[in-house]
Design a protein that fits this description.
This protein has a domain of 162 residues. The protein is globular, with a radius of gyration of 26 Å. By secondary structure, it is mostly helical.
Length: 368
């Protein structure tokens, strides 16, 4: 088979796989979670096997521990998070309204005292009253709320509308159990499908992808756990309303780069500003908790636990989040970094081969 036909064949399979993922994105969440857990926990099962346990016994031990952790989360933290979630959703519109009123009042005073003359010189009509500022500000906030609502709606409809959280909790352990039992056979089967003349190259690429994914999944999971504890405990101790819910949610969302830290900062600032007004002490403490967590994440935790395993430029990382999020919703945002890391490994290998090729050096293929 000619090289062109081989490339076309594998590109067709890749496009077919991508289309299938897009088509079934709504029901893939438990299986993606199971694959991630199986990938992360397979080394643990292998170590338990070396201690003398069978594959089935080691998998059962891991499954029991996983179910106990789930039970603790559901029955221990679930009621607290449920109450705070309901209260937060009910109170958020009031917080936004009060914040809009506070900003408009302060901004109107600043414009009247300092900015009015300068804006008139620039030919800009500044609102002269708090009502005028609030009307102008309301337009911006309304537009931002519309964008945010559409974004959350697309994530919800694309990621979790068809699969409830209860189904996710029930299906994921079962699928993970079967995957862990058959993981070695599954890997061996996939390897046997690779043509013998390409196996060495495929194994080199898969080893690089494995290092990238292992570093990200295991390291980022520990980072998320630390941030969830740091944010929730810190925001609760300073007396912030719904601080426990904001912290746990931000820690969980930190698995998606930039989303967790941004949500923690935005919601803690909104709640702290409205709750503590006119005093700014609570706002300062909330910012201190969030920013210290981000500092530890960026300068201590991520370099030590995740390192440079992903190897992606921040611009490409943000693009991957938007691209996969628009295609597959919340599921796509979770998959964005692992898939982008795998694609990065393949692209870097392709560039390396291209720079060694006759096409790059301008040589005749036969002479090269």
């Amino acid at each position: 088979m000619r090289v062109e036909w081989q490339i076309a064949f594998w590109l067709f399979l890749l496009m077919l796989f991508g289309f299938a993922c897009f088509l079934f994105a709504g029901v893939m969440a438990p299986f993606i979670a199971s694959l991630a857990l199986g990938y992360v926990l397979d080394p643990v099962v292998t170590r338990l096997q070396r201690l003398g346990l069978s594959r089935l016994a080691a998998t059962l031990v891991i499954l029991v521990i996983f179910l106990l952790l789930n039970a603790f989360l559901i029955f221990g933290l679930g009621p607290i998070l449920g109450r705070q979630l309901i209260g937060f959703v009910e109170s958020l519109p009031d917080y936004v309204t009060k914040l809009q009123s506070l900003i408009s009042d302060e901004l109107a005073g600043l414009l009247q005292s300092y900015g009015g003359d300068w804006l008139k010189k620039l030919g800009i009509d500044a609102p002269s009253t708090a009502d005028g500022v609030q009307k102008t500000l309301g337009g911006f906030i309304g537009q931002a709320a519309q964008y945010l609502g559409n974004f959350l709606k697309s994530i919800w409809s694309g990621g979790t509308a068809l699969v409830s959280m209860l189904a996710l909790v029930i299906v994921t352990p079962v699928v993970t159990f079967y995957l862990l039992i058959s993981w070695p056979e599954m890997v061996a089967t996939i390897r046997s499908l690779i043509p013998p003349r390409y196996r060495q190259t495929a194994f080199e690429i898969s080893a690089d992808i494995d290092r990238a994914l292992a570093g990200f999944l295991r390291g980022q999971s520990l980072v998320c756990l630390f941030l969830a504890v740091w944010y929730s405990v810190g925001l609760t101790l300073i007396g912030l309303n719904f601080g426990f819910f904001i912290g746990i949610s931000a820690g969980f969302l930190s698995f998606i780069p930039y989303v967790g830290s941004t949500s923690a900062l935005v919601f803690s600032v909104i709640v702290a500003l409205v709750q503590g007004w006119p005093h700014l002490g609570l706002l300062g403490l909330a910012i201190l908790v969030v920013e210290s967590g981000q500092f530890l994440e960026g300068n201590v935790l991520s370099p030590k636990l995740v390192g440079e395993s992903v190897g992606l430029h921040p611009v490409w990382l943000i693009f991957a989040l938007f691209a996969f999020g628009s295609l597959m919703g919340f599921t796509g945002m979770i998959l964005a970094v692992p898939l982008a890391a795998a694609m990065g490994v393949v692209i870097r290998y392709a560039v390396k081969r291209y720079k060694r090729s006759a096409l790059f050096h301008g040589l005749d293929p036969d002479a090269a």
